[in-house]
Amino acid sequence: MKRILLCLICIFSLLGSKAQSYNELVEKAMDYTFKDSLQQAEKLFREALRLDPYNARNALLFSNLGTVLKRQGKIDEAIDSYTMALNITPYATAILLNRATLYMEKNLTEKAYLDYCNVIDLLPNDKEARLFRAYIYMKRRQYKEARIDYNVILGIDAKHKAARLGLAMLDQKEGRYIAARDGMNLLIEDYPKDASLYKMRANLELEQNLPDAALLDLEEALKLDARDADTHVMMGDIYLQMEKKHEAREAYEKAVSLGVPRMELMEKLKKCK
């Protein structure tokens, strides 16, 4: 009887030691993560997973390991780690979104699309999943489906900047120029310090053959960000189209001074003579 008791005590002692070691490893790994000591955190997460591969908390550990790997630029390994987490908890929307983000970084849009669809099935009002799925639909030229996702977002948040911008771009692609310009006008009213919006409206105006209006918008963009070389190139292109060669050359030379390689603009500069 005493031997049995001693054996049981030893077994429980070992189990307690194992659990404690697992918990200690996880705690230290989290501490290293918060301190940005990512290599040490990765090592400890992996040790904990090896020590107790069937622990109920391992889905969270694989997810945390995925985030640590992502922050180190180990994208493929991070995807694998998120996938291991999802094998344990397939309905974890935060992990699905994290994996989808990495799929998008690797241009694996079809895989990302499936993850976003799964999130939307579980959380129909998730704005992040709707927004990125709309982006994928736009790339596929599935404009009807993209519009549905943008409208769902705006039904939740009428001022959502990215969704409003997406709808304006969608209207532009479909040739609804008045609606597109109305959308851009409202966005600029709400975000008058966003230089990129003026550039986008300038692109829209160029499609409508309104070069003077486009130049005005690009001038506004430069007031907000005078060192944007791309804006100077856009202005040079418009001036060249208008046969204002002196102004075009000045714009291109400014772009070169801001870092655009002269070779990239050589053909355009030749046309300014």
Describe the protein's topology.
Layout: H1 2-34, H2 38-51, H3 58-71, H4 75-88, H5 93-105, H6 109-122, H7 127-140, H8 143-156, H9 161-173, H10 177-190, H11 195-207, H12 211-224, H13 229-241, H14 245-257, H15 262-270
Walk me through what this model shows.
- This protein is mainly α and 273 residues long.
- The protein is built from 15 helices and no strands.
- Helix 1 packs antiparallel against helix 2, helix 9 packs antiparallel against helix 10 and helix 13 packs antiparallel against helix 14.
The biggest beta sheet reads: none
- Structural class of the helix and strand makeup? mainly alpha
> What does the average pLDDT come to?
91
Order of helices and strands: HHHHHHHHHHHHHHH
The radius of gyration over CA amounts to 27 Å
Helix tally? 15
Summarize the amount of helix as a percent range: over 70%
The low-confidence runs, each spanning 5 or more residues with pLDDT under 50, are 1-19
Distance between the termini: 104 Å
Strand content: under 5%
What sort of overall outline do the alpha carbons produce when their principal axes are compared?
A: elongated
> In total, how many beta strands?
0
Could you provide a short overview of the structure?
The protein has 273 residues and is mostly helical. Helix content is 80%, strand content 0%. It has helices at residues 2-34, 38-51, 58-71, 75-88, 93-105, 109-122, 127-140, 143-156, 161-173, 177-190, 195-207, 211-224, 229-241, 245-257, 262-270.
